Amino acid sequence: MSRFFLRCIDRGCGAVFDSAEKLYQCPRCRDLLELAFEYRLPDPGQLRDLWRQRKASRDPLDVSGVWRFREVLPVASGDWGRAVTMGEGNSPVLEAPHSARYAGLERLRVKHLGWNPTGSFKDYGMTVAATQARLLGSRWVACASTGNTSASMAAYAGRAGLESVVFIPEGQIAYGKLSQTLDYGALTLQVEGDFDAAMRLVRELSADTDLYLMNSLNPFRIEGQKTVLFELLDQLEWRVPDRIVLPGGNLGNSAAFGKALLELAELGLIEKPPRLTVVQAAGAAPLYAMLRGGSSRLEPVAHAETRASAIKIGDPVSWRKALRALQFSGGDCQAVSEEEIAEAKAVLGRDGIGCEPASATTVAGLRRMARGEGTAALEAGEEVVAILTGHQLKDSEYTVDYHLGRLEGIEASGWSNPPRRVPADKARILELLERLG
Ligand code: F0G
Predict the structure, then answer these.
(1) How many Å apart are CA 224 and CA 237, to the nearest integer?
(2) From ligand 1's centre to the CA of 121, what distance in Å?
(3) Pocket flag, ligand 1, residue 258 (CB < 6 Å)
(4) pLDDT digits (tens, 9 = 90+) for 48-58
């Protein structure tokens, strides 16, 4: 059996703790904690075969795209039966030819994590964090959120019979997401402040009370999200792409991808990691600013601004882990404007691939990189996978506003597709169709 425990990510500190301790930060040095594994697993070929064979099974654990990889999750085999799962993961990898051309690439594949039970990548992590909450005997779970974490947490808490409380910045999350937490029965607190203020509150409250914190500070969340890359590589027949591009907000997903790459290499499942590129919205880009400025400390953005509300975050909690991920993979960071995000989203739409604005930062970032802008220039012929993180219907207001030319400060471009008003008259409609050819 593999062993696992909590460990401080600061090499100098390196304090370790039992994984059953309810900790989110190192009590000694305040740095982040991660789960460390002493793996005792079959060889890489056997592991790959085992994970592939499970795809033919009807066992709910095998049907889950997260628990299919349970050998690398921090849950003992005796507890697997207590997993809180609803078939999460299993998100497709799709060719995106229009988006590739737009970005200046020969080929682009996207992995769409929005195709999950609650419509975002958060479900990959939440299934594991909710299971840990259940194993710890927690009654209440809590998170601060720009909307997707809260939707996912509320759903998984509902499945697990836990009570949930969400802290959301008032008036700053998309309606699709708000509607989810209401339906799933979470106590929904609209904080008079931004995401960073909500995050500070919930951190303090979970330190002082029994509330179990489900933000990505919680290392069990990160472990679930780690399986995104195991799943992706299985889908790619274990041929490692050159580059993986993903949006960055609180930087939990970047942290999870970095952890996955370290372990994939350690387990002999890959030889060389793909380079990770994190893309931020220019108005909420503290990681980008740090790397560009050559600094080793992240300076929070006091008032983050972007219409991609999922990533409207100025003080990302997981930046140290994200930095480690970029260092390990030879990766980098990009920042893109509001216009670039809106246009890239509409282009992805032409591929039949809807997504929420934050996800479209990836294609916008790739376009910059293909032009050699920033520190993250693409080399010709690189195999690229973009990670889309949220479902198109999460923020339909944004989409309609864009196509109607109503997104403040953003010019409608050649990609906008406003509806046309027509009389209820067949002849006039035929005339219009002919004109459009
Ligand atoms: N994309 C979407 C759709 C998101 O909801 C988020 C984060 C991100 C990207 C960024 O991921 O934070 O791991 O860097 N949403 C969080 C939330 C913050 O509360 O739902 P990250």
Answers:
(1) 21
(2) 8
(3) no
(4) 999 999 999 99
